[in-house]
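Hi R.,

Here's the chain you asked about this morning:
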Amino acid sequence: MIHVITTNSGLSMRKGARSLARRSRFISCGVTGVSLLVATLTYAADDDKPKTETATDPVFELGRVTVYGTKPEGADLVPVQIDAGKIDLLEEKNLSEALSQLPGVTLTNFGGRNETAVYVRGFARNQVPLFIDGIPVYVPYDGIIDLGRFTTYDVAAVSVAKGYSSTLYGPNTMGGVINIMTRQPTQPFEGQLTVGAFSGDGYETALNFGARRKQWYFQAGASYVNQDYYPLSGKFAPVAAENGGHRDNSYRTDWKISGKVAYTPNATDEYAIGFIHQDGDKGNPPQTTAPKYWQWPQWNKQTVYLISNTRLGEASYIKPRLYYDTYDNTLNIFDDATYSTEKKSSSGTSVYNEYTYGGSLEAGTTLLPENTLKGIVNYKFDQHKEHPDLLRKPTTAYVDDDASISYGLEDTWHPATRWDVQTGLSYNTRDTRKAVDTTTGLPFALTDFSSFDPEAGLFYKLNEDGALHLTVARKSRFPSMKERYSYRMGSGIPNTGLNAETAVHYELGYVGQLAKSLSVNSSLYYSRINDTIQQVYLSPTSTVSQFQNIGTSVKRGFDLGLDWVVAPEATFGASYTYLYQRTLTIVPKNTEPVKSTDTPGNSGSLHADLRPFKWLSVVPSVEYDSWRYSYSDGKGNNREIGGFTLANLKLAVRLPYEISLSVGVENLFDKNYVLQEGYPEAGRTWFANARYNF
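And the predicted structure, written out as tokens:
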């Protein structure tokens, strides 16, 4: 047996060394960023080539997944979006926090894995895949990803399609789609430098810059974030597993580099190569009621992609995408709160090495009168390689392989000036190539999947920036490798016979500007899910469960988002979400339907940007969540956590030369609250940063 022996003083020395290493990395990253900035400024100053016309949109155009054309179709207005301006205004440093500002999206924290996530109209993170510039980046094994590891420094905008989404995204979009769109330069040379500090001995630094020339442009970025701990509320009552103050084992480090180079030979064609590399290292704060002692020394992800758009004549185009994505993850499971030994049978080191490669070929034309027709073929290969016990069995590894192919067709018919009718159809397949039983080492029975998903939408444009819509869509999701094959550390039984789950979404809404100063995003929706996949216990007294298709469930609700420009000196934004969820099926081993967990019935946010002086912004904000179920097993054991209201305040000073200084307090009244039972969130925290736009 291999194990680590360290005294408490050794643990303190190790933590001190880790803290010193992080500060050194922070300083090194800052020096590197300044060096890059100086070098690029020198290049820009020395460049005497004639400048070209500037672009007008900072969003990477090839990263959009929309209908073809210079004017937005009615369907383009349906997905909700948050841009870099609002992300900076509200100081949302990771993707989960940014998304939670949108109507229909609620924030949660899976404390057992220290992963932040969002639900989209009650649909979980494995039902709403994540894309970057239209490239799928969700994890192959379980279809989920820790959104807290995705920082927002290089993000231009994030789009969320809820229920009704374009068939061009490919398979497994049952609950919607999240698409991160990265930056592209709009000027001959531009950039942003950010440095800051925050509670918990936290530091941040980021540099993004780009240049645009006549037939090419580039965009590059680097960021580094470190926090040694987060402070708990002063109202938290100490317990055996957590004495309050500095939250135990809550450190985190995230750094990322990204970039793209694009060739634009003319006004319509573009060819871009991009990459994103991010490394993470985090602790896992122990649950206050049933603690476990985990750390994640490795959470690394890398994506390389090629996207292009080529015009064919005056009315047609082709848009291929190619990508390769890797994910490496290490989990250390320790014996106790010293985080020093791994002797117990339940302890050890688990390592995942995964990769995905694939591509798509999209083509579109307007040759048919009054129609915009698009078609796409998507291919995606996923491999999951797992070392379940690296210390005791270093040579033991298990591999699962899946390959997916999707065919999509989408047509937008323009029968009249203000009317659009969009119809879509996709046929999705998954071929299970390899699956291994981690208990016996023998192959599992292989099961293939297919689904046929139609959708249709009727859109009436009140003006160029707003449309009413009525949509219906059938969407599906194939069960993940984890749901089919995992024993879940002894608490689960595999189920290779799972079927795909499907949802039919109905929605009526309006998106656009009701007035010059008022933007509205509103929708009423109803979703019915068949063959719902859910954890089911093997008997009324068993602690072992299995993922099964349990029948039917429903979700219905109302989303509302508002942005109101009262005057140049006063703008307001608000969002509200009402969500009702119910499982209609009672499985034989249960006494009642399992309640939907981690999603409040009512949630919302409100913020303002008040400018009493040209150089000063006062940004108050409020977040509200009602109570939610944190646990439900279908046998009468339901546990609730209370709702909460958080107040935040930020002051920003604008200085000459595009410099701004910001300070702020989050959770102003030091609320003691949780998003999941046993995992207290941060109390009152502060931040301060400086930004230089050039």
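Residues 246 and 502 are 44 Å apart (CA to CA).

Let me know if you need anything else.
M.
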